[in-house]
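Hi, here's the filled form for the chain we discussed.

Project: internal
Contact: R.S.
Residues: 110
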Amino acid sequence: MVAPDIYKKVVLDNDNVRVIQIELAPGQSTPWHSHPNHVAYALTDGKIEITDKGKAPVAMDIKAGDAIFIPAVTHMAKNLGVSPIKMVVTEIKHPGNKKPKTPAVPAPKK
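And the returned structure, exactly as it came back:
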């Protein structure tokens, strides 16, 4: 995993998706890393700066409950706020309309 201090927990990982719980402390940044197409779901409010490779940084306010689809990318992120940002990131492993290899089942209880 890119940054174990940020990527707190892999909630689910199978042939179709990887679901990760992340937390960025105030002022904390991620190293450069890549994702396939993914969705970020905010658990807390905050202000985050995202820098896609080869582009200028973009700062945005996020609210708990916001969901953002992000195409495959190499980027880094920084928490610009004064409180931790907690999100759930769901990486989509199979492209387009291909039939998933694994049937939909609930995640095992831990």
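Let me know if anything looks off before we file it.
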